[in-house]
Every structure is written in C-alpha cells, then in structure tokens.
Amino acid sequence: MKLADYTSDDRYFDFDPNSGHFSRVKLSSPRKDCSNFSGMAQLLRSPREGSVLVASYVANEEAWISIGVEKWKLFDESLVIKHRETWGGFICELSIFKEDRCTKKFTYFRIDWFLLVDPTYDQLDFSLAHLPVDFVRSELTSLQKQREDFIQMWMGKTPN
Fold first, then answer.
1. Would you write out the chain's pLDDT as a tens digit for each of its 160 residues?
2. How far is the CA of 70 from the CAs of 13, 16, 93, 109, 129, in angstroms?
3. Whether the Cβ atoms of residue 108 and residue 92 lie closer than 8 Å to each other
4. At 154, which helix (H) or strand (E)?
5. 7 exposed, middle or buried (CB, 10 Å; 0-12, 13-18, 19+)?
6. 159 in the Ramachandran plot: left (φ > 0), alpha (ψ -120 to 50) or beta?
7. Contact between residue 44 and residue 54 where contact means Cβ atoms under 8 Å apart
8. pTM of the full structure
9. C-alpha angle with apex 61: 84 to 32, nearest 5 degrees?
C-alpha cells in the first residue's frame, strides 16, 4: 500500500501493513494531493528503537495506526491514546492504553526542537510537524463520526 510521506511532498512509503516493512520511494513529481494514497506515514527517530515508521491508514475499510511492526485500530473504543512532551519539549512520548494498562509507549525525538524559542509557535505548528499528535482523539466529535471521516478521507467513500 502507498502511504503519503508526512514530511515530504516528493516521497511516499511503500508499506506492508501485515509485516510493517516499508521502503521510502521518490515520486517523479511532487504530490499535489493524497488521492492515490491509503494514509500518511512519518519516519521518526527513537532513542530506544532507532528509525521507526509511524503511520495512520485505511486497510479493509478500517482505520489503523502502526508504530513499527505493531498496529491497532485507530478508533477502537477500548483504546486511549495519549501524547506528551518530555525533557523540556525535546522528546515526545506516544502512549497507547487498553483497559487502563499501557500496551505501548513510543518515545521519539522532537523534529522541530529549534522552534521552541519561537513565540508564535503553537499547538497547530506542533501537530503539523508530528503525525502522532493526530492519533489522539477529539472529544468534540463522536468516535464513530471521526472513524467515518477518516475512512472517507482516505478511501473517498463512507465505510459500511
């Protein structure tokens, strides 16, 4: 499956959702939209795991997130996803909880650390630089509506 590169319009990831294996591929021309992709991915550097592909995508009409070779249904009601900054904002942490138990804690280096001194930098800028921030669900919209919107965005249709 093809996943758009979150940090580059010139590249995409050829991704196998079953194994988590991927390759980064250069496009012949910059991407103008995401209509030919199944989701979005970003290669992040983890102090413990090295370079890790983090992705959100649609497969078999279901929304998924993956961190390396592990994957979860993005809108599973039993999951709670939290994202926070540590070490003065230089390191970020994505945690996935199931039934109040942390099943995954992924720590990665902040990409845009040099912007921490910019007084105009805000949460939107942070989200635009780091794909995992978008894994945290909104409480303003129902989980079902978020799922439908996500799948429609990547498949161009409403899920069954």
1. 999 998 889 999 999 999 999 999 999 999 998 888 999 998 988 999 999 999 999 999 999 999 999 999 998 989 988 888 786 667 889 899 998 899 999 998 876 554 555 555 445 454 545 566 666 677 778 888 889 988 998 987 555 5
2. 17, 12, 16, 19, 22
3. yes
4. helix 143-155
5. middle
6. beta
7. yes
8. 0.83
9. 70
- d(C-alpha 90, C-alpha 109), whole Å: 6
Residue 23, φ and ψ in degrees, nearest 5: -135, 145
What order of strands is seen across the sheet that includes strand 101-109? Answer: 79-86, 91-98, 101-109
Per the CB < 8 A criterion, the answer to whether 57 and 15 are in contact is yes
